[in-house]
Write a structure and sequence with these properties.
The chain is mostly helical. The protein has a single domain (3-81), classed as Protocatechuate 4,5-dioxygenase, Chain A, CATH 1.10.700.10. It has helices spanning 3-15, 17-31, 38-46, 49-54, 59-68, 73-81.
């Protein structure tokens, strides 16, 4: 599992406006630049918050990512709690 790479990609999207724009425009292309497992890549591309959390995305990185994607806090909490 490459949770480090997953968190690194999410953090880049959160903190770097150019990376965020690129992810919105070409998520698959950006994800290909990180050493993600197939499951991590699929979850990121689908914005599957529950799967991202189970795959090791840290809550303090995942929540800003979900805010960027306009997910409410109740929906976020439901997703990570399964």
């Amino acid at each position: 599992m490459s949770a480090y790479a997953l968190n690194k990609m999410l953090r880049e999207v959160n903190r770097n406006p150019q990376a965020r724009e690129r992810f919105m425009r070409d998520a698959a292309g950006m994800a290909a630049e990180f050493d993600l497992t197939d499951a991590e890549r699929a979850a990121a591309l689908a914005r599957d918050v529950g799967a991202l959390y189970k795959l090791g995305a840290h809550g303090l990185i995942l929540r800003p990512f979900t805010i960027i994607h306009q997910m409410s806090e109740p929906d976020y909490l439901r997703a990570i709690r399964g």
